[in-house]
């Protein structure tokens, strides 16, 4: 919603008394009026309605592809006085991850984020790993380099989905013999639309979106390749929520490592000690 000009003027009028130059040039007035007038004109967020697709074409791995989460926003940045540079874009963090691949009575493999799992942190960055803290640097961000004389309007958008491979065979064995019996996944994310001043790192949260992806695939490893897997639930994902009040960004959502580099593949046998199959990358 566009903040009324009179709000800004009411604040400036106080300064006018002490500043005959007028508040637009006033150093004290500028940061506050600018901050308050970056406007989100429109924001959309959804998860596509198509179900997860399953690909059994490989005799080594099962692949699946979940529907896309999407977020986009039209933003107005008012004239930027001086040489300030503002970047507006999407930042995402993972808050919760359960990602279990069951191999009958042998055990399960699980992708884990140890610091999140043990509640040492409440979120982990989901940046692309290059453009921290941003989720990406193509459609995901827009940078306004001051000074600008007019309003700058643009759209920033992002999308996310899962497209993993899961071995048919037990990951700690050399055999490709199919033992995979089910896949269960439940992940939650927070996605923020943020304006960041490049010089000062001043950060403004403009919008906060929460979303979740849940998945359950049942597998009969006895059946021939191509006929093993069945999408059990859910038939439709919960839709994302655009929160009525913004949430602050936890420190770990802004910095290295990201979820991709921090995740560990564990083998958790029914009997015996867990084994690290793939250690973290960082
Ligand atoms: C939001 O969705 C509406 C309806 O599909 C579309 O017309 C509009 O362009 C979208 N806005 C943004 C910022 O993506
Ligand atoms: C995105 O980041 C990469 C890697 O830092 C860089 O090479 C590229 O120029 C950037 N693209 C844009 C559009 O900023
Ligand atoms: C802004 O953040 C970057 C990255 O964390 C850091 O390198 C830089 O020193 C910070 N600048 C200021 C002015 O705090």
Automatic annotation (TrEMBL):
Keyword match Signal: yes
Q: Which InterPro entries match?
A: FAM78 (IPR029638)
Q: Where is the signal peptide?
A: 1-20
| Swiss-Prot/TrEMBL keywords | Signal
Q: Does the keyword Signal apply?
A: yes
PANTHER family in UniProt: PROTEIN FAM78A
Q: What is this protein called?
A: Protein FAM78A
- What are the top taxonomic ranks of the organism? Eukaryota, Metazoa, Chordata, Craniata, Vertebrata
């Amino acid at each position: 919603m566009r903040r009324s000009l009179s709000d800004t003027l009411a604040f400036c009028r106080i300064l006018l008394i002490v500043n005959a130059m007028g508040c637009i040039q006033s150093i004290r007035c500028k940061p506050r009026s600018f901050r308050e007038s970056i406007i989100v004109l429109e924001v959309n967020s959804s998860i596509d309605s198509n179900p997860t697709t399953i690909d059994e074409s490989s005799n080594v791995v099962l692949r699946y592809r979940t529907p896309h989460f999407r977020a986009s926003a039209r933003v107005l940045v008012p004239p930027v006085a001086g040489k300030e540079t503002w970047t507006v874009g999407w930042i995402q963090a993972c808050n919760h991850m359960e990602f279990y691949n069951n191999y009958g009575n042998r055990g399960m493999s699980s992708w884990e984020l140890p610091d999140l799992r043990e509640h040492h942190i409440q979120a982990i960055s989901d940046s692309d790993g290059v453009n921290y803290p941003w989720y990406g640097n193509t459609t995901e961000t827009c940078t306004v380099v001051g000074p600008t004389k007019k309003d700058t309007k643009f759209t920033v958008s992002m999308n996310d989905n899962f497209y993993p491979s899961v071995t048919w065979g037990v990951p700690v064995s050399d055999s490709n013999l199919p033992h995979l019996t089910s896949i269960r996944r439940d992940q939650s994310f927070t996605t923020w639309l943020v304006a960041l001043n490049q010089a000062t790192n001043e950060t403004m949260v403009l919008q906060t979106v929460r979303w979740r992806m849940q998945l359950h695939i049942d597998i009969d490893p006895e059946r021939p390749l191509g006929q093993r897997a069945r999408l059990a639930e859910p038939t439709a994902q919960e839709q994302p929520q655009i929160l009525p009040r913004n949430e602050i960004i936890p420190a770990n959502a802004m910095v290295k490592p990201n979820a991709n580099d921090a995740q560990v593949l564990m083998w958790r046998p029914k009997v015996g000690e867990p084994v690290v199959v793939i250690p973290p990358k960082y």
